[in-house]
Amino acid sequence: MSRLMMPLTVFGLLLGFAVSASAATTEGLEQGDPIGAFYVTKVAGAEDDGVEQGEQLCYRCKYGSRPMVMVFARDTGDNVQKLVKEIDSAVTANQEAELKGLLTLLGDDAAKLKESAAKVAKTSNAKNVPVVVAKDNVTGPASYKINEKAAVTVVVANDSQVVATHKFDTADSVDVAAIMGEVKKMLK
What we know:
There is one protein chain. This protein is α/β, with parallel strands linked by helices. The radius of gyration is 19 Å and the shape is globular. The protein has a 7-stranded mixed β-sheet with strand order 2-1-5-4-3-6-7. It folds into 2 domains: 1-28; 31-187, 3-Layer(aba) Sandwich (Glutaredoxin). It has 5 helices and 7 strands; from the N terminus they run H-E-E-H-E-H-E-H-E-E-E-H. 36% of the residues lie in helices and 20% in strands. 38% of the residues are buried.
C-alpha cells in the first residue's frame, strides 16, 4: 500500500466509525444524557403556571434543573391520559421537590394536534401539566432523538439529565406504574 493510500484508508475507517457511532445514537436519550431546550406552543392545561394559551416557549428551560416528567405522544389513548393524571397528582404531592410535568403532542398536522391537546387537557383535568404542541411537531426535538415509530416516549429527568426513558409502541402499552415508580425513586 502506498504512503498516500494509507492515510486515506485510516481516514475512511475513522469516517466509517463516525457514521456508525452517529447511527447508534438515534435510539433516544439514555440515563445520564443531558436534556436540551425545545420549543412548544401551549394549548391547554396548567392554567396557573404563568404561561398563556398560544404562547410559544421552552418549558424545559422554564423548569430548569427541577425534576420533571416529559411525555412525547403521537397517540393520546387511555393510558396516556391516565399517565397525565398520575403526573398531575405527583406534581401536587411533590410541590416541595418542585416536580414538573409536560405533555408534548407530536404528529403531522399541527391543527389536529392542538384539537387533541385541548381534549386531553379537558379529559385528564390536568391542573399542573401543560399540554403543548412541539415546534418540531412531526419529529419532536432533534436532540431528544425520539423514535419515529414510538407512539409514546417518556423522559424522566432531574438536574438537567435523563434519569430514565421509556418508549411504547402504542398508547395502550404505556406502563404508568413503571413510569411513576421511576418518578418516586428519583424524588427520594
